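Troubleshooting: if your tokenizer reports a length mismatch, compare against these two reference records.
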Amino acid sequence: MRIRVTPARLIALSLGFAFLYGPIALVILYSFNASRLVTVWGGWSLHWYGALFSNRQLMASAATSLEVALASAAIATVLGVLAALGLDRFGRFRTRGVFAAMLFAPLVLPEVIAGLALLLLFVALGLERGFVTLVIAHATLSLPFVAIIVRARLAAFDRSLEEAARDLGAGPATVFRAVTLPLIGPAVAAGFLLAMTLSLDDLIIASFNSGPGSTTLPMRIYSEVRLGVTPQINAMATLLIAFVGASLLLATLVGGRLPGWSAPSDEGRRS
């Protein structure tokens, strides 16, 4: 069904995009501002990018965010793949409903509730808040997203390929390493990139579960913005937008390679 394009719809669409992306465009524009005043344009300059890389606190927070994102994404990817395999390959076992509910609960829980629940858990276990608790919290946040992506790929997976490998004498580990993992590899990579993006973007859960020496970049930016926005914050926000945008684009491109996600061809429709 084709949607009729009218001037009113074009205007509404333009206003919607301007409302959503106009503030982001202003942040990017004013990151190249030569003036010290954020709202006063003083010409084009890259001065604040140089000043940003000289800011040790911001750079340390950026390094912490990157380390946490890599570690939590790796953990979430491994556990997410295992969870997706469990839901797809083990049939309707007795506790399947409970397992699925617990797995996907972080998707529907408000981040404030999830952050507080994780904080109470770490306090009960006697874990000191820091890098480890932050990695666990972010892995918990992003695990269900990885499981959903990988499970979507497994739903369109041709099981006969694994059966053929078993008929040729391959064991379960060899079948998974040589057949299953390469075929679900794009979904695994997309899940890893999405988990990394979610970790870099998180503020609320990190505020509950971080400790001394584990201040993430969003927390640092938020604390400095409360005292007033500086052109350095605009520059850092621009770099963060570029990094997250590139990660999401890469995840989309990788996910688009999945056979189950591609649009059916005319030949497939006729058949």
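Reference record two:
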Amino acid sequence: MSKELVEKLNLELKDKSTNEILEYFLKNYKNTSALSSSLAAEDQVLTDIILKKDKDARIFTLDTGRLHPETYDVMDATNLKYNIKLDVYFPNVDDVQNLYKTQGVNGQYESIEKRKTCCGIRKIEPLKRALKGLDIWFTGLRAAQSVTRTQMKLIEWDEGFNIIKVNALIDWNEDDVWSYIKENNVPYNKLHDQGFPSIGCAPCTRAVQDGEDIRAGRWWWENPEHKECGLHRK
């Protein structure tokens, strides 16, 4: 896999629909592709589309140990609807214990460095394990989600994880996502109905007010340009 292949794929697939893009990768990278799902609305859309095309497609999620109860509810509903068991990756227990010893339970509020340390232990390290051996990483990223994502392309080379990242919903808007969910009866996180457009760990996610950016509820004590956990980077 290489950056040159990414450029070729972007040219080849630039005018294709989301369905056609996913079909291409599910066919050509059947055993080396996977969706990493946060169980948020976009990832639930992708789960539905992907499993309708390949019921054996790999879908995994990260359980950081600090998720909302509603996130576990949608995980369970997804397993039941599609008759699957999502692959679940957990952080290393020794790393979490050391995190609590060094910066406490809620050290993420004290500095960006401490918050990113927490994200690294709870998200980045498990994600590295989950992506091992894969060539293609499906994500639910959309360009309209935040200022940190406006320049993302359909297909990218992720330097941090050395993998091709396919942002199949990159040009979808919020209405596109929710229309699909309603039309296809897709399970979704009920926190979305309570003003949570973006959902992560419970201590780092809040509802947003009318008129706020849809990512305003993530790490709300930080500046917008810092609001990524490290899962998605160049």
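Descriptive notes for reference record two:
- The mean pLDDT is 91.
- The two ends are 16 Å apart (CA to CA).
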